[in-house]
Specification:
The protein is an all-alpha fold. The protein is built from 14 helices and no strands. The protein starts with a helix and ends in a 10-residue tail after the last helix.
């Protein structure tokens, strides 16, 4: 069981490294193709929007497929598209390859958390989810900083080739360790309205739009922010991005330890901590130690929010609709990523990059106010 979870966690690491890596290479990609940072940032936005558009229809199309076979197909295609990114000679070709990766990502995130839960007894569900989310944290701890380092030393294309090599290794590993797991059955688009009548799920989906949008308004441009506003060197930036990812472990640990004790309080604290981090982002940039503290709190709170919302989706969805509920969540979450990166780019163009944290905080505050006033409803689970 644990060998299988390790394999899925490694896949999560690879997929999330690929998703995050343009954040760490934004300046170099922009220079290579003579783009503005906002223009290069569209790689992140378009990727996220494609995941949003494709998550539900692709999940419905593949909902009857045996899960091991589906996972192997996804990781195989993912590897191919990473090689295409490596071979890109134009921005259009790079964008095409990123859209291909987004197609595999759309299905992967719809099935990986439900699959992990299926592999373990009920009492280990929280641990299984934390293990999967740990893959995301490791992606920010090692994946993005290491990819950024490879990009600085050998060129950004070599970063994508390295991801492709590691994804091929993960393909071989899970082919031996992942058992065959039957899906919960065919789910049709006609059943989607039933899920949307669940007020708790609708609230989760709205939070999955607004909180990631707030996060990526700032995080999408964290590399140029640290370079131009905080006036940090390349090595310092890489170190801070790594620490940001390490902080995500804290979010996973806090989730496993405290989430089930009071889900409502846990959700509020994670969102409020994220908001405070965004508000203090510019103010903290004058000193590297205060920047470090803000990034640690930010990393903990965002990871805690992510895993908590996934747990909410799994617990509040009908069994046969869990994968599709998760695909809707993944799609809307990525809409938030795309919109956040787009908003951050517009802030950079018209207000200036120092203001990305403030605008992100305003979006997060709106979500918290809607939840606190009862416009959104997420009652405590019994």
């Amino acid at each position: 069981m644990w060998f299988t979870l390790i394999g899925l966690t490694f896949c999560t690491f690879i997929f999330n490294t690929s998703e995050f890596i343009p954040v760490g290479l934004l300046t170099d990609i922009a220079k290579d193709f003579n783009l503005t940072e906002a223009g290069a940032g569209m790689l992140i936005s378009v990727y996220a929007w494609m995941v949003m558009l494709l998550s539900l229809p692709l999940m419905v199309m593949t909902s009857k497929m045996e899960l091991k076979r589906l996972m192997l197909i996804l990781v195989g295609l993912f590897t191919v598209f990473q090689v295409c990114s490596f071979l890109s000679t134009s921005y259009a070709m790079l964008m095409f390859s990123r859209i291909g990766v987004a197609c595999t990502h759309a299905i992967f995130w719809s099935i990986v958390s439900p699959l992990a839960v299926k592999l373990v007894p009920q009492r280990f569900h929280a641990v299984a989810l934390s293990t999967i989310v740990t893959g995301s944290s490791i992606a920010m701890i090692l994946g993005m900083p290491l990819g950024r380092l490879i990009g600085l030393m050998l060129g950004w294309r070599m970063t994508f080739l390295s991801i492709g090599i590691f994804s091929f290794i993960s393909l071989i590993y899970i082919s031996f360790t992942l058992p065959k797991v039957q899906s919960d059955g065919k789910f049709s688009m006609s059943q989607v309205p039933v899920l949307l009548k669940n007020k708790a799920l609708v609230t989760i989906y709205i939070l999955a739009l607004t909180i990631p949008m707030a996060h990526y308004t700032g995080y999408g441009y964290i590399e140029p922010f640290l370079l131009k506003v905080a006036n940090l060197g390349e090595s310092a930036i890489t170190t801070l991005l790594m620490i940001f990812g390490i902080a995500g472990f804290g979010g996973s640990i806090l989730f496993a330890k405290y989430y089930n004790k009071n889900t409502t309080v846990f959700n509020y604290i994670s969102m409020i901590a994220l908001t405070v981090s965004l508000l203090l982002f510019k103010l903290s940039s004058q000193d590297i130690s205060t920047t470090l503290i803000v990034l640690i709190v930010w990393g903990i709170s965002m990871t805690a929010f992510n895993v908590a919302m996934q747990a909410e989706i799994i617990e509040r969805s009908p069994k046969a609709g869990t994968a599709v509920s998760m695909s809707i969540f993944s799609g809307i979450y990525n809409l938030g990523i795309g919109c956040g990166t787009f908003v951050g780019g517009e802030v950079c163009l018209y207000l200036g990059i120092p203001f990305i944290g403030y605008i992100g905080a305003i979006i997060a505050i709106l979500a918290i106010v809607l939840l606190k006033t009862g416009v959104l409803s997420l009652p405590a689970r019994k």
